[in-house]
Write a structure and sequence with these properties.
It is a single chain. This protein has about 180 residues and is of the alpha/beta class. Among the domains are: about 1-40, no CATH class; about 45-110, 3-Layer(aba) Sandwich (Rossmann fold). About 15% of the residues lie in helices and about 10% in strands. It contains three helices and six strands; from the N terminus they run βαββαβαββ. It has helices spanning about 15-30, 60-70, 90-100, and strands at about 10, 35, 50-55, 80-85, 160, 165. The relative contact order is 0.08. It comes from Vibrio harveyi. This is Helicase conserved C-terminal domain protein. InterPro entries: DEAD_box_RNA_helicase (IPR050079), Helicase_C-like (IPR001650), P-loop_NTPase (IPR027417).
Length: about 180
């Protein structure tokens, strides 16, 4: 935008609070005419001179749309909201229409003609077709398996931590010759 000589500045949650405050102050004083922002500015902004809100994408939650577009038309002023809607945003767009209880109009912008014209009707899905359940075959009773016997030799001279565990040998039984 700045390359096109439009005075724009960006605001996002990646900035610290001091940086955000500086940007907002500059925008309020019209140092910058365009504020490009994430949802960090969707609430709490009360600037009467905001005339347009452009949604690059639709928010995940319907209420967020209301907060975003509510940044324009403050204090009785007129404001416009524009949303760029693509295939990934279509469901969100339809939820917003339902939430607002009104049909939203479409416009095609010169040089922004998209290929998406709305969702096509779904093709029938035969995978979930209900089929009569098959009769259960009687199953043979399974006999429980006995646990495998441990190899006692495995535990001899096993390293435990930094030490090698070497079991003590049992003392030899006293011989009758002693």
């Amino acid at each position: 935008m700045n390359e096109k000589k439009l005075k724009a500045i960006a605001l996002s949650g990646n900035l610290n609070q001091t940086q955000r405050n500086t940007i907002m102050s500059q925008f309020e004083r019209a140092v910058f005419k365009i504020l490009v922002t994430t949802d960090v500015a969707s609430r709490g902004l009360d600037i009467a001179t905001v005339t347009h809100v452009i949604n690059f994408d639709m928010p995940k939650h319907t209420e967020e749309y209301v907060h975003r577009v509510g940044r324009t038309g403050r204090a009785g002023n007129k404001g416009d909201a524009v949303s760029l809607v693509g295939p990934k945003d279509w469901d969100s767009f339809k939820r917003v229409e339902t939430y607002l209880q009104q049909d939203l109009s479409f416009s095609v912008f010169e040089d922004l003609k998209g290929k998406f014209k709305g969702l096509k009707p779904r093709k029938p899905d035969f995978r979930n077709k209900k089929v009569a359940p098959k009769k259960a075959r009687p199953q043979a009773k399974k006999t429980p398996k006995k646990p495998a016997q441990r190899d006692k030799g495995f535990y001899q001279n096993v390293a435990v931590g930094d030490n090698v565990f070497i079991p003590k040998k049992k003392p030899a039984a006293p011989s009758s010759e002693d």
